[in-house]
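hi got a favour to ask and not much time before my train. below you get a single protein, a line of residues and a line of whole numbers that encode the local backbone shape. could you go over both lines and see whether the tokens make sense for that sequence. a few lines back from you is plenty, here it is:
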Amino acid sequence: MKVTFNISKENNFSEWFTEIIKKAELADLRYNVKGFIVFMPWSMICMKQMYAIYESVLEKNGHKPARFPLLIPESYFKL
């Protein structure tokens, strides 16, 4: 099935990309909270495969894995 969009990729890439994500059901963007994205199964499968490729290439080039804490500003918790 072909899907068309009334949004110009060249004029408004952000809105165009968001619409693609919604139509493909890769993420649930219903929540109006910055950074609060629910990633759906297909997007998680794709991300896991991409990360595996990235990590493999980085390790082959001598990079070592590291993980840093997620820091959330206190102001985001205030209503």
